[in-house]
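Task: complex structure prediction.
Instruction: return structure tokens for all chains below.
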Amino acid sequence: MMQFIAYLTRKLSRDFHGEIISLPTRTILVTAFLALLLLPLFNSNTYILRILTLTCIFSIYAASWDLLGGFAGQISFGHALFFGVAAYTSALLNLRLGLPVLVTIPIGALAAVLSGLVLGLPGLRLKGPYFSLASLAFPIIMMGIVFTFPQLTGGELGISGITRLAATRVREYYLSLMMMLTLVLVMWKIVTSKTGLIFHAIREDEITVRASGINTSLYKMLAFIISGLFAGIAGGMYAHFMRVVGPSTLELIMSLQIIVFVIFGGIATIYGPVVGVFILYPLMEYLRVVPEYRMLIFGLLVVLVLRVMPEGISTFVQDLLEGECPRCKERNAFTRSACRICGTDLDSHTHLNFLKRGA
Amino acid sequence: MWGQILVNGMIAGGKYAMLALGFSLIFGVARIMNLTHTAYYMLSAYLIYYFNQTLSMPLALSYILSITMVIVIGMAVYKVMVAPVRERFTAVLIITLVLAMVVQEAVLIIFGGHYRTLPKLVSGTTQFSGMTLTYQHLFTLGAVIFVLGAIWLLLFKSRLGIAIRAMAMDREVANLMGMPESQIASITVAISVGLAAIAGAVVAPLFIVEPAMWMHPLVVVMAAVILGGLGSIKGSIIGAFILAFAEVGLVFLLPQLAFLRGAVSMAVMLAVLMIRPEGLFGIFMEGER
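Output:
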């Protein structure tokens, strides 16, 4: 037993040194996460906790868009469908049947998976921009359905009086932070697995993938299901956190805003969208100090940043702080002169990288 | 009743057709999905309001001034913001979307969120087979037909139009045939923005002018372009009219369900796409990956 614990600590510390400390971007991410974990000890301002909880929920939502849009290449303008369907389902189950949070969020996520199957049907037939624009239709049709049955859905006003996510603000914060970490890690595991590789390949060249004997329809459907599941969990959490669900969860801006977050953070990375949401969402809230100019400043900032780094901020910072070893394709900190894995000389290449960036 | 549907459907269809034509041209030639498109439509309506009401210029002059200004702004935005990142589909998407939001916020700051109406260019009404029509309706109808006809002539009878259509069909081959790619792209942007500005100018006196007026047309225009087939000029005009008549028909025939107009036009689009995935007149661009 003692040996096992000793082995675990050794392995953990080795992994910590080898995989985290050695790469500046990972160090930044881990530090930021620890800071978020410790934050409530120093600051119990409920307003800040509320913003950060919403940031965590939107991070899950943004990462789920990235899985579908960035990896599988199905750029969807109707992602709010998943979010809204799950939010409405959880809210209705909670309010009409009195089910607890632990039941309503999974059922809401399942409903989002079903709607993912519906959204996937045109996804199998339509390609590229055709799919992007056709997917606009689904949240709008769903909103029509919501307005058609106002007794059930509350129409314009929505549903209010839903149970809280957890008893106190701090608990809600920790719950959503841990959920965010777990779900984003799961998504990251999915996209780095063989399935994720196939998603990548489908985005790059679907015909070739099909020619290699892979059932692309099945994998595209799988992407819709997985993405719907995670977006659905985010939607259910949002419903229980805000305690009011209205048609705003299905609005066009809900679908488009998340694409802004993802592309700002760095598309097709999973952690990029999280970074994007953690920068932009609190910024948007902070800009409430100048209410009239809020969206104007926000918009100009996003446009200028994207103009300088069109690949997104996380990819830009990563390329700045780390270089790829030309021989073994492992990433290295820019300070190193030799690759940490295979010992290849790196200096000449990193210099070249900097020159290219300067030009 | 049916006459009202016809006239209103023609006007709404003409508005959407002008917007969809511009959207489709820009997508065909420069491969840019320009989400700022309907923001220019709103901007031109507001500029007319500003020149006419605030600076009390004559109405005709403020029309010309605002359309020119919107074209200049559109060109500048294209050159500075969009052209350098043109090859990246997602970056273009976000930049144009955020720019549309910026325009909305700027309008909100300068003009406030009040609902405004523009004075009619021509006043008076006429009786036509039992229904009352304002001259403004007739004028708008005439202007829409005139502009669409002029664009049709430009695209199908002039050298420039042939170059634009060739570019939309196949960029590389058109380039090999000696057509200056970036120059034609800029001209197309100017035409497209101009169409949006004219649409805003001629239609604005019939509708309420407010800072969120770009949202609904954007959705309808994107649906119309997809419905008709991306890159097809005929297709986007016909798609716009189909969606406009679906909307107007619903509003007039079942007024209690008017809130469903967005959902109905979306359902029409989806139904067509399920049968013809490339739209009514579209071609599959298999060669482009």
